[in-house]
Amino acid sequence: MKKAFIWVGGFILVVLVLGNLPLPKKDPASYDDRIASNAWAPMQEKHGPKLWRKLGDGAIQTANMNGRKAARYFARRCNKVELVDVSEKSTRREIVYFAHCDGESKSRFATLSEIKEWHDG
User: Fold this and answer.
1) How confident is the model over 9-18, as a mean pLDDT?
2) Contact yes or no for 81/39 (Cβ under 8 A)
3) Is 84 left (phi over 0), alpha (psi -120 to 50) or beta?
4) Average pLDDT of 41-63?
5) DSSP characters for 19-81?
6) pLDDT tens-place string over residues 61-90
7) How far is the C-alpha of 13 from the C-alpha of 7, rounded, in Å?
8) What mean pLDDT value characterizes the chain?
9) Within 13 A of 114's CA, how many CA atoms are on the CB side?
10) Domain ranges in the chain?
11) Buried b vs exposed e over 23-61: b needs ≥16 C-beta within 10 Å?
């Protein structure tokens, strides 16, 4: 009985240790095949003048430079990313992206700092 208890306890310990090890990071570009070709387009003032004024040129430029990273971030958990855009929840200090994934009814959200931590991390 003691041997069975030790064996089960040892197995549980191994599972816990291995379960907490970080997975090897995939190259972010490896997710490109999961992103629709028209999923991300840089923001233009004519398409969102209210958001453009709220964020300002600097934040919009930052958002546009990181749109592809955002698409890759969402592609990690989606079969196919259909749309990525900047959310109205964004502020000058923190850009928030949202994505629509094929076959999912809810949008996914992520901040630029979360995306950069994953992508550049």
Assistant:
1) 50
2) yes
3) beta
4) 93
5) HTSPPPPPPGGGGGGGB-TTS-----GGG-HHHHHHHHHHHHHHHHHTHHHHHHHHHTT-S-E
6) 999 999 999 999 999 989 999 999 999 999
7) 10
8) 85
9) 14
10) 26-120
11) eeeeebeebeebbeeebbeebeeeebeebbeebeeebbe
CA atoms within 13 A on the CB side of 118: 20
What pLDDT sits at residue 40?
A: 95
Instruction: Return d(Cα 92, Cα 21) in angstroms, integer.
Output: 36
Region 99-109 average pLDDT:
93
Residue whose pair of structure tokens reads 């855009």 in the numeric block? 85
Among residues 44, 62, 55, 79, the alpha carbon closest in space to that of 115 is found at 62
